[in-house]
User: Fold this.
Amino acid sequence: MQPLLNIQGVHKQFGKTLALEDARLTIQRGEVHALIGQNGAGKSTLIKVLTGVHQRDGGDITFNGQPCQFSRPAQAQDAGIATIYQELNLVGLRSVTENIVMGREPRRLGGFIDWKLAHQQASEILAGLGVNIDVRRPLEEYSTAIQQLVAIARAVSRDAMLVIMDEPTSSLDESEVLQLFEVIRRLQQRGTAVLYVSHFLDELFEICNHVTIMRNGAWVADHAISDIRKAVLVADMLGKDVSDIETHGSTDFGGELEPAGELLFEARDIATRRHLRSASLEVHRGEIVGLAGLLGSGRTEVARAVFGMDALSDGQMSLEGASYHPTNASAAIRQGIALLAEDRKREGIVADLSVRENLTLSILPSLSAGVQIDSEAERKLVEHYIEALQIKVSDMDQPIRELSGGNQQKVLLARWLATEPQLLILDEPTRGVDIGARQEIQRIIQDYRAQGGAVLLISSEFEELIEGAHRVVVMHEGRSIDTLSNPGLTESTLVAALSRGQPSTSGDDHRMQETSARPSTPRETQA
Amino acid sequence: MKITTPTASSGATTAPWSRYRLRHSGPLIALLLLIGFNALITPNFLSMQTLSVNITQVATIAIVAMGMTLVIATGGIDLSVGAVMALAGAIVPLIFLSSAGQSFPVLMTLIAVMAALGIAMMCGLFNGMLVSRFGVQPIVATLILFISGRGLAQVLTNGNLQTFDNPMFEYLGSGRLLGIPIQGWLVVLLAAIAVFVVSRTRFGRYLLASGGNPRAAELAGVPVARVRMIAYTLCALLAGLAGMISVAINSASDAARNGQLMELDAIAAAVVGGALLQGGRAPFIGVVIGAAIIQLVRYTLLANGVPDEVALIVKAAIIVGAVYLQSLRGGH
Assistant:
């Protein structure tokens, strides 16, 4: 049978960067097809090339039997490809009906919109997807999940043959995910194909028929979901050897390393409303604890909870043996917690302020006499850190935006070290930093630890975790599922733990069995 | 970008520093050009009389503009300053013209001034609360008092012009020190305090960080909500002070006219002076110069017989020009 969509050998270049190289994707009519890959694998670029946002530099795309080259997203829409973006392009203040029929409202005699008919059509389309809501209400009164379903209904009303969903479950709770899956199944029954992009691998086994894996802008493999185990998917995504993953069970490694010092911080089954379901971990003084996991596994969410940015919906945390529940970042800082955030530009630097002002932002109270900042003490402190961390600046009053990424990161690291934290949380501390600065940053972290500091290190770089961390807590779908200890930690044990699907290691953890048994997935069991 | 840097170190001659200086000398050059132009064509420009008139006029703009700069530095805007001026200006004579005021003129004048400042402060707290606690857009939040504040002032005074004769209070408008109007000195004093606050105090640093990158500031432990609250409160206080000065100058309070369109003059002065509407900068000296430019342009046109309507257009052109210059040099 002729496939609905066939993409072969597509190339796309941005300047000198090759974003896509031999991308392939084949989708049959009425199937749910998953597209997976690490960040930067080229999934989004491929979708943008397909939907006419970008123009390809080479390769063939055939849709519905026709070779196609869309120059605008509207053309792709007219041809029957609908895209449900993470940021929904709907009008919140208008009614559900208006959002669905917009642009093709039914008319009455004289050109007036036939609202009665429009409401009826909208209700029918939604009911066909199993959604029963009052279509006269403004869209914004409904949850993100419903809004997403309305966006899908809009696509359906335009007779889309292929609906592209980009991370559709990233902002949904579990019951909403179930509802979305129900809608996807109904789309499938109508013969509509779905291209499903997600970081949550377990979801694929629940809802998809086929999966295409991309890495570094290129096609790696495609499989029928029924023929494949999760370990293979993870290996393909990461570019590692499957047999490595199979042979190294995480339970091969014996007793934990003796803790470096006394227990400093402990989290027990913490959960938040942001994709953190149940995480437990301990950090001792003088210890670096790594947090590993694929994108969307809840690593950053753990950091946010510990730093007081998200309130706990469940579980407890304790610091120095006392109950610890920070209400915001300031409270966490006062208790001796520091967080070097992942997004340096948005959550770290104040670009227009100087290196000096950025560095001392978190310790101004201790640098002030009354309301006035003791500029003498401030300059001394800044000089000390510029020297100690070898920050390259022409002058401490230089605006921080003029520094390189690595030096900006060092300034931020200094900002937190200056608060003399008990627990330093580092979220991807060496991302976007050149090799030289990376090693220096790692040395700074080690020095801090050697002086009795405790570190929670979130990293996607396996080497960083293997070489740096005493223990690594593995996160998966918002849960901490395993703890690996050094020495004995290798790249393949880490990869194996991340994939988590293999039966050999699942004996002691009931959650592992749930995911290896595909048809009855965790979400359904819980629902 | 802040206006002063304490004790420029050995690196003071590096490229960023000189660029920084240039950026801040723009308004000053414009002001000097404007003065030179007037010296040549406007009759009797270089006289003590002209200086006094202009200082009297510019003081209220400068004071309100400094408050506005605080709010703009947080990334906000305050449309209610004109209305707060009217409100504060209406309350003062209301109190000292009352029967109690006639019996205890000195005491009641002091109480009147305190009451006016108190009301202004409450207006600021109201704005700050809406913005920082309830997350209302600044332009919407301050629109509430923009409309209702002047209305309230007019209701309080039954829409009447209140004329009075109170030498003690009028000193605020017509007093002189060393031949210079008292409000001129007040501007200098306030600007000095503002520069000190923004460059040397914790609040100043927090202000620039909150405006420059609120998210990063919050995560660094900066009390962003409290900083915003304080900024709106100080802005309203300064507007209240300006409202009283303007009433004192005229020896009369007209709730319908006092501070009218002042929000536009203040925003214009701030922008011309180098404030950045997205926040993160509080160049107070520049803002005072900006206020002087706005006033001098108006004076130049008036003194040369150009109608007021045209003056408004010229003012708009200056604002557009200033924003354009800012977009060129800001790197934003």
Notes: The longest helix of chain A spans residues 174-189. The interface with chain B takes residues 307, 309, 328-330, 333-334, 339, 341, 346-354, 357, 360-362, 364-365, 368, 371-373, 375, 379, 394-399, 401-402, 415 of chain A (CB under 8 Å). Confidence is low (pLDDT under 50) at residues 248-258, 501-527 of chain A. The first strand of chain A starts at residue 5 and ends at 14.
